[in-house]
Write a structure and sequence with these properties.
It is a single chain. The protein is α/β, with parallel strands linked by helices and 254 residues long. It is globular. The protein has one domain: NAD(P)-binding Rossmann-like Domain (Rossmann fold, 3-Layer(aba) Sandwich), CATH 3.40.50. It has a seven-stranded parallel β-sheet with strand order 3-2-1-4-5-6-7, with helices on both faces.
């Protein structure tokens, strides 16, 4: 039987208090990883998540910082290094939220925020943590992208621009660090059901589901499962991949 065993590994999840981030954190901890729970503003949720991990027998720590600032990420690296060591797994999950509208109406600052939280976050995380992975001759650098990067639907432009730029960084990085047994991959969720959705009486998602070959929306746990797989030795020969987890709603072509 195949199992995902991350015992002895250290995993940093940015945006760990978010809808997807908290499930990824729980899942990586359940696989045996020591988890670094990053947050920007929701300290109460970060503390709650850490307590949950520890009560389940896991190990973790909390870090705070602005993922768009290189100095903040460098400070996080120093904190984690001093407490646990250099992470073996980095999951770039945090992203800045904003209101979507047409290209003609979208404020320029929204394009800047998406570039900073998708592209620069990934670059700063790589600069801070990949050297430690290279030294270990082992590492998993995982980014959370989106199916929107393939859809290019109206009102998605700032988000798509940021995530497509992120995609370019990951593909290049995969080629640059592969010789050191460091893999670099992206998980691209579709419109995923999270804790917030489960509390709604109506989801208004029938039109979306009609376009999904598997005829349902994905669950947050299913995204976390793919992250755990890519973080494990089972995925040691996968790098440079953009993997949709969306029931076939978008399908990369060859």
């Amino acid at each position: 039987m195949l199992t995902i065993d991350l015992s002895g590994k250290i995993a940093l999840i940015t945006g760990a208090t978010g809808q997807l981030g908290r499930v990824m954190t729980r899942t990586l901890a359940a696989c045996g990883a020591k988890v670094v729970i990053h947050f920007m503003s929701n300290e109460a949720k970060a503390q709650e998540l850490l307590q949950e991990v520890e009560q389940s027998g896991g190990t973790g720590m909390i870090v705070r910082g602005d993922i768009t600032k290189e100095a903040d990420i460098a400070a996080i690296q120093q904190q984690v290094q001093a407490r646990l060591g250099n992470p073996d797994i980095v999951v770039a999950n945090a992203v800045i939220q904003y209101g979507w509208t047409s290209v003609l109406e979208q404020p320029a600052e929204d394009y800047v925020s998406q570039f900073e939280s998708c592209v620069l976050q990934s670059v700063f995380l790589a600069k801070a943590f990949v050297p430690g992975m290279i030294a270990k001759k082992h590492g998993r650098f995982i980014g959370i992208n989106t199916e929107c990067a393939m859809q290019n639907f109206p009102t998605q432009s700032a988000y798509v621009a940021g995530k497509r730029g992120m995609d370019g960084v990951y593909r290049v990085l995969a080629k640059e660090v592969g010789e050191h047994a460091v893999t670099v991959n992206q998980v691209a969720p579709g419109w995923t059901i999270g804790e917030r959705d489960r509390s709604l009486s109506e989801r208004n998602d029938a039109d979306y589901i009609a376009g999904v070959p598997l005829k349902r929306r994905g669950e947050d746990q299913e995204i976390a499962n793919m992250v755990a797989y890519l973080a494990s030795d089972l995925a040691a020969f996968i790098t440079g991949a953009y993997i949709p987890v969306n029931g076939g709603h978008v399908m990369p072509a060859i």
